Structures are given as structure tokens and as C-alpha cells.
Amino acid sequence: MSDLVVIAPHMDDETLGCGGVLAMADDPMVVFVVAPTDDNVEIDQVADILGFRYTVLYEKEWEARLLSVDRRELVGRIESVLHAERPREVLIPAPSYHQDHVVTFEAGISATRPLSRNGYIAQMVASYEYPGSTWGFDGREIELNYYVDIESVRDLKLKAVSLYQSSQFGREVIAPDVVDAWATLRGSSVGLQYAEAFRILRLVNSRPS
User: Fold this and answer.
1) What is the per-residue pLDDT across 99-149, written as a single tens digit (0 to 9) for each?
2) d(CA 182, CA 191)
3) How far is CA 8 from CA 18, 50, 87, 138, 184, in A?
């Protein structure tokens, strides 16, 4: 069982949005909703660097077509992983202009609802951002309310991002200097050198009696 489950639409979203948090977790699990169309994505090396296990829910023919996936089935697949792993924290992608991210966000909300028939509820659910997620969502930065200091694992995150360069060549938002600048910007908002920012959707404080 893991202490953290990250739900990611595609391979690279997990590193862009919360690679630092993954690197600091004890036994993180990443749920990739859809496999990449490129068979050469460097996911095994990235997983080794950041220290996470992973599973993939749908094959590559569904990439950029998650709007066509049966929503109940998708939610059920995510729930199955969460009930097996029973993590304290679950991170889901912020909605964006990309339809796969919107579908994953909505399915993540449903899968972490406090009405589960299986009796499991994650104590913290938060959405993570990534370069490009703010396009079309003006003002959403003010909703960020949880920041994690990633200075100690910054180099690991950038190394993981760099591994994606061959399969993601030409995508400026995944350039290491862009990712580093993003972390610097978020850190400056809270007096840190480097940070990842999130929007808490649920946080339960269970104090011992």
C-alpha cells in the first residue's frame, strides 16, 4: 500500500505537476489513465529516478480520446486502485484546455468522493498544476493553497523531466528550464527557493484521542 497516489492523464504530467512530491514520498503510486502513442516514452527510467510504481488504465488508442471512454468504467478503475492502495493523499490534475485532463479531473473527483461503498476515504485530495494548465483559467492561481518545498529534490525532478526530452521533443512546456522557472515562481510566492503548488479539495485532520 502507498502513502501517495497520483492520478495522471499522460506520462509526463506526473513529473511536471508533482515530481518533487513523488520523489519525497515513501512509496508512491502513479495511475496513468492512458498509455502514450509513442512506445519509446522513458517511463521506467523516470519511475526509477522518482521512486514510484505505476499502472496504466487504458491502451494508447484512447490517447486524446478519453471523452469517448465510459465514465463509470473509468471511475471504477481508479477506485479499484485507490481501494487497493489506500493512500493517505491523492493528487489529481487540474482541469485545463486538454480534454483528457478534464476527464481525468472529473473522474478523480468522483473516485475520491466521500460516499464510497468500500469504506475508504483519502484524508487529503488536491489538484496539481503543470505548465500549460493555467491557459484559459485566468485567476485560478489565487486558488492555490498548499505549497511543498522541493528544494531537496529539485535536481531529481529536473533529471526526470530531461529523460522525457527525446519522446516529447519540441514541447516547450516540458523543457527543464521552463519547469525550473515554474518551481522558482511558486517558491517565491511563499518564501521558498523552489516549490510545487496545489489546490486542496479535501483535508481531514485526524488527531489521536
Assistant:
1) 898 999 999 999 999 876 667 889 999 999 987 777 666 667 788 999 999
2) 14
3) 10, 15, 16, 22, 23
Q: List Cβ neighbours of 104 (8 Å cut-off, separation of 6 or more).
A: 7, 8, 9, 33, 66, 92, 93
| Biggest CA-to-CA distance, the chain | 54
Q: How far apart are CA 53 and CA 44, in angstroms?
A: 9
Q: Using one digit for the tens of pLDDT, what is the confidence trace for 7-26? A: 999 999 999 999 999 999 99
- What is the chain's alpha carbon radius of gyration, rounded to the nearest angstrom? 16
Grid cell in block for residue 118: 468500500
What are the C-alpha distances in Å from 151 to residues 19, 98, 155?
A: 12, 29, 8
